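Hey, quick one: can you model this chain's 3D structure?
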Amino acid sequence: MATVLWAERLLEQPEKEALSFQSSISVDKRLVFVDIQGSQSHVKMLAKQGILSAETAAILDKELSRIARDVEQGTLKIDDNAEDIHSFIENVLTERLGDIGRTIHAGRSRNDQVATDFRLYLKCAVSEIIHEVHATVTTVLDKAEAYAATIMPGYTHVQRAQPITVGFHLTAWASALIRDSTRFQDALKRFDECPLGAGALATSTLALDREYTASDLGFNGPVLNAMDAVSDRDFALECAAACAIVQTHLSRFCEDIILWSSAEFNFMHVADKWSTGSSIMPQKKNPDFAELIRGKTGRVNGNIVCLLTVLKGLPYAYAKDLQEDKEALFDSIDTVKQSLRMFRGMFATASFHEEQMKSACTGGFLEATDAAEYLVKKGLPFRTAHEVVARVVRDCIESQQHHIAERSLHDLKVHSTLFEADIYDLLRPEHCVNARTVHGGTNPQEVLRQINVLRTMYAAQ
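Sure thing. Here's the predicted structure for all 461 residues.
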């Protein structure tokens, strides 16, 4: 095990396995560059405040840049035996600079250091997720526009309900993704505060300038309260929750794709390169990518529960439990970004079987609501109209008919004299779709309007 920063306090150090157990280097080594960035800002502030000489600060800054370059180029390997990435960098600095390296931690604790690193890393990572979400929205909306007038059955309870269009269905997907984007943006606003200078929990007797380091690191300002700065992991919870919601949306979209691409539905063709085969059944073509996105959602959803559970019993200030904050969130971030890319590639190459979807709108009485509203327009109370059409549907089923239009006008008038010959044209799937011009409806022109609104929304984000 590498030298630990607190070694002089204890007569005995924990055994090797125990030190490894409490090490976080395997998880937090991805913070190496933001840790160096934070250290360089801290050094500049210490020089500005006269706590370090300008000469010492310049030496530290130069060596930190060299360490970053060496790590990036692979000439300096991160020691997996180090306690954490912060200890590793400080130990390297001390090995190279001697006592000058020992000056860097003045006015700083690993508590505020790691909180700063974490927020710096998440500012970048969340921006990357927002980019991936926007790219996915574009893919979905492009497909929605191409199929804005393509008729398909709409479902509730996985039962055929009303005729809609593919574009209408996909615009619903895109609406969910836009909300996902705004959740991440809202989270960014709330954690755009800098913990650096909070120390262990109560700042320092040294004349630190927290406003300077916050500004230098690109934060909106310092965290108001030092104890809150090191205790708070709300930002991690918000990011984990936003990850869980977008992953759940992707899972639901994939469930649609899995159903639509099945032989029973046959609404969609998933490209061969986004499918797999069976090791035993030669004929199989499986939607494994969609299934994996759906499956990974369980772990992403579990990560938010993990973080909530870590935090729920902690007294307010720093505790080692908080070391467990990163692994779960990093996993969620990595999984969401990859799932968005995989979904986008899979969906961009998919196509729809238009005739199959349209034919599925005939049968199952998807026109029943339109028949009831036809009677409402003629003055019948809706509940009465609903009962009339329900009886018509029951007659159809008893006569083994699959569409209300199969009933004669005489048969319809048995239930209501308000039925006239014009009802038959209104029961066609095309009319059922086109008649829904209400804001948010499935009329193709209205769908195109919704698509334009969504494009404007994410372009403005």
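One thing worth noting: DSSP finds 20 helices and four strands in the chain.
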